[in-house]
Amino acid sequence: MSREVRTVVYDPDLHLEAYQFEGIMQKFPNHFHDYYVIGFIEEGKRHLICNNQEYLLNSGDIIIFNPQDPHACEQVDGRKLDYRCINIQPEVMLDYVREITGQAYLPRFSTHVLYQSELVSSLHELHQFILEEQHDFCKEEMLFLLLDQLLKDYTDTETAEAEQNITLEIRQLCDYMEVHYTENISLNELSELSGLSKYHLLRQFTRQKGISPYRYLETIRINQAKRLLEQGLPPIDVAAQTGFSDQSHFTNFFKKLIGLTPKQYRRIFNHGAETKRLQENKR
């Protein structure tokens, strides 16, 4: 009988989330996060598409996503996935980068996959310390050393070329959706705002951003929903406040992107609890 385990821990010392998925078969559709993701494959094989580039991932490979990097993945040959990652919010990353480099900037990692990286052991050890809820400064030291190495070897300090190639019309559409995500936005409305036909809008947006306009909008809604759930709001209220047509649609899409239901995610941030931890077992 198959066994699926999803464990999420929020570390109040490091101010980041740690995810561990064991034995999962879930396919994640194209989406992005508003935070950094640094993870690795423990077991299994995955097909990854990130920023329109394709990768084949195996155990021992590290993946790195910048905020706004569109990505999708699925298992290969029916093999189950064991995966761990840490999620770092931009404001938290900014503090770490300032400590390490003496400069306040948000890094852009130029490499998405580190094949068979020697840094896996360091990331695994750090992740395990977080799961075990260790409170001494060893885990902070490990995080600083890991980020220092990644910053030195895998960042591009200049503005990303992809961002330079985003046209004014597409930037305006992104800005509009980020402000009006709670509303019932139509393709006609976006077409009128951009001055592009609906067909050319879809083509240009997807080519430049690596994600379709509707998927971009739903991802914004999910990212906002996470913040509300972290504050303790019930999922039914969060669905209404983030523009989803109903709670069922919200729940289904949230799990597709995050790997947890809104209710499960909210429990990690159960206010008043000493630790912020969730472990779900499914047989």
From TrEMBL:
Residue span(s) of domain HTH araC/xylS-type: 171-268
Gene3D superfamilies in UniProt: Homeodomain-like, Jelly Rolls
GO molecular function, one term: DNA-binding transcription factor activity
Alphabetical list of InterPro entries matching this protein: AraC-bd, AraC_XylS_family_regulators, Homeodomain-like_sf, HTH-like, HTH_AraC, RmlC-like_jellyroll, Tscrpt_reg_AraC-type_HTH
Pfam families, per the entry: AraC_binding, HTH_18
Domain of life: Bacteria
Keywords: DNA-binding, Transcription, Transcription regulation
Stretches assigned to coiled coil: none
UniProt KW DNA-binding keyword: yes
Protein's recorded name: Helix-turn-helix domain-containing protein
Organism the protein comes from: Paenibacillus amylolyticus
